[in-house]
Amino acid sequence: MTAPRHVVPSDGCVWVTGASSGIGRAVCLELAKRGWIVAATARRQDELESLSREATGLLGRIIAHPLDITNETAVKQAVLTIEMAHGPIALAFLNAGIAPYIRAPNINMFAVRQVFEVNVMGVFACMAALMPLMATRKLGQIAVTGSVAGYGGLPKSAAYGATKAAIIHACESLKFDCDNLGIKLQLVSPGFVATPLTAQNDFPMPFLMSEDAAAKCVVNGLASKAFEIKFPWQLAYILKFLNLLPYSVYMWIIGKITGVQKG
Ligand SMILES: NC(=O)c1ccc[n+]([C@@H]2O[C@H](COP(=O)([O-])OP(=O)(O)OC[C@H]3O[C@@H](n4cnc5c(N)ncnc54)[C@H](OP(=O)(O)O)[C@@H]3O)[C@@H](O)[C@H]2O)c1
What is the pTM of this model? Predict the structure, then answer.
């Protein structure tokens, strides 16, 4: 069996979720620079329209397709609409996400449900709508945004980290099927990137990257053979290493680094 190949602009268009800001927005522009037709989705239509205008003059183009990924019916319809308008979706960057803080003792159940709806159920809805089409064509590439926060528990991210751990697990599991179906599935694991999502963070963010640098890592990674596209590599490897340590050592180090540990 040969590994699924990475796709190129002549194979079809790209679908990006979470395109209205941050990493998704920067990735749309990077892909358009490299000649892709990009179907950009998120809820805020005005931001998508402004992104579309910003791409004027690039080799490719960006077209706004407003979408709330928590609406499964709308996701299915969006996939059909995008394919009708721009041809087969060859590449999907499933990136939309939210990151509310959750801390004990006051667990905000509304926020917990919402983050699972967007970060987990929304991603599954996108894959459910797209994978059968790619499988029929035996061609396609899907990159899903997880996070290094999914490697192990970090303060304030009880729900967010849990959603990203679920995404890591889901991608690891689905990769076995996707390889047989001709679909190249990749996991994108960002560290800290300066976006509206991290603007709320009130703690040090080591190895913080710009949106543009992150977008280049994502788009270059799409052409690589790697299952996981992780950046910055320093933070990813430090966290992977820390997660190999006994819990007592892991908790002590993370508590000290983040300033959460008292005493
Ligand atoms: N920034 C980081 O340091 C970092 C680190 C690790 C992982 N990540 C992950 O990277 C991804 C992008 O994050 P970001 O930092 O670029 O944050 P961001 O700037 O806040 O972007 C989040 C995007 O998700 C979209 N979105 C949220 N809820 C949605 C919904 N229900 N339906 C459709 N789109 C929705 C938002 O658009 P609308 O509001 O217009 O819908 C926005 O475009 C997320 O999955 C995040 O968990 C980020």
Answer: 0.98
